[in-house]
Amino acid sequence: QSYCHRLQHDMYFLTSTSRLNEQVVDKIVLQLNRVYPQILTNEEAEKFRNPKASLHTRLSDLLKHLQKKGDRHCQEFYRALQINAEQLFNDLPSRKILKTPDPTEIDSDKEQYMLNDRGPVFFLACFSVAAGLALFWYCCNSDTKVVGRARRILGFSPIIIGRHVRNICMLYLEDISRD
Lowest mean pLDDT: which of 29-33, 69-73, 110-114, 118-122? Predict the structure, then answer.
């Protein structure tokens, strides 16, 4: 899809009220005037920056003018829009069509975000809770053979858990085995 067709498709979205403010339109016009190759001449830039005309009229005239000039001019407009109003650029209807060509296709970027939205601390916390519950269930089982196995495991684990924690666990296991 050419940039002129995209601009024609996005024209209503861009000219609707409160999408672009006057400062952003002025920045876009100045960028189109100063970029190489020069898209707008000085006279054209002054015409589209005229504060006497309404913003809607100036923007509509600018977009029609760029469409008449060709695809390269429309492409530069999109580049200026991306630089000066990135959020609006991302919300353009033509961008949404380009981003999701097949509605049944899984968006891998969104899926990756969904899987990685929590950090490593969350993973460690969940893992610690799960390991703690498993150890608690394993040690608190009424079967006496399990207590003996748990004692052996805790006895050989001074590297994994500190000596003080190991001693507390061993005392707890001894109390359980007496009951």
Answer: 110-114
Confidence (pLDDT) at 3? 92
Residue 108 has pLDDT above 70, yes or no: no
User: Which domains are assigned to the chain?
Assistant: 3-97 (1.10.533.10)
Give me the DSSP letters along the chain: --HHHHHHHHHHHHHSTTSS-HHHHHHHHHHHHHSSSPSS-HHHHHHHT-TTS-HHHHHHHHHHHHHHH-HHHHHHHHHHHHHH-HHHHHT-HHHHHHH-S-TTS--HHHHHHHHSSS-HHHHHHHHHHHHHHHHHHHHS-S-HHHHHHHHHHHHT-TTTS-HHHHHHHHHHHHHHHH-
Q: Please determine, for residue 33, whether its predicted confidence score (pLDDT) is greater than 50.
A: yes
